[in-house]
């Protein structure tokens, strides 16, 4: 029979986070990505759309507004690495980010109000969904477009955390 100390050590080891040794997964999962610039004037249509909207997954999480300066807007929406830098990912060059088509992301029309608000805020500009892995089963979905063009343009939209087990 094991001593109490041996049994406690066994329990502590069994309850450790399996991604504990994975520094990349750890830093991303604990990281809170930047969603809004200081003093951001979030468009009313985005504020209204995100007010009572939740992304349905294993943990229903609220949508939150996104409003970030995007100086390169003349070339459209950012690629994966540019997006990672924009949201202050700890390692943009190796961030696990996937670009998705909004129609594929919301194939069942659950998030039509979010998509419509983002489209209206962008006044016809392209809308894109970025799936940002936070390590393990946590991902964030960023639904964004550009507001304005050239210097002073903004990336606007909404994001939500999803738990996908």
Automatic annotation (TrEMBL):
Pfam families: NuiA_2
Cited Gene3D superfamilies: Nuclease A inhibitor-like (3.40.1460.10)
Region described as Disordered: 1-39
Regions of compositional bias (Basic and acidic residues) in chain numbering: 14-37
InterPro entries to which the protein is assigned, alphabetical: NuiA-like (IPR056539)
Protein name: Uncharacterized protein
Source organism: Daldinia eschscholtzii
């Amino acid at each position: 029979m094991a001593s109490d100390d041996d049994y406690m050590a066994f329990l502590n080891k069994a309850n450790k986070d399996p991604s504990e040794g994975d520094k990349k997964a750890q830093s991303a999962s604990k990281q809170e990505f930047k969603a809004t610039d200081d003093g951001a004037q979030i468009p009313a249509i985005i504020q209204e759309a995100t007010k009572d909207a939740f992304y349905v997954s294993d943990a229903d999480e609220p949508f939150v507004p996104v409003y970030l300066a995007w100086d390169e807007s003349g070339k459209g929406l950012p690629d994966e690495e540019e997006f990672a830098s924009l949201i202050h990912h700890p390692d943009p060059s190796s961030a696990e980010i996937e670009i998705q088509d909004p129609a594929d992301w919301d194939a069942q029309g659950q998030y039509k109000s979010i998509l419509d608000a983002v489209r209206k805020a962008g006044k016809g500009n392209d809308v894109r969904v970025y799936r940002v892995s936070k390590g393990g089963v946590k991902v964030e979905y960023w639904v964004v477009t550009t507001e304005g063009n050239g210097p002073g343009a903004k990336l606007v939209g909404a994001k939500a955390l999803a738990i996908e087990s």
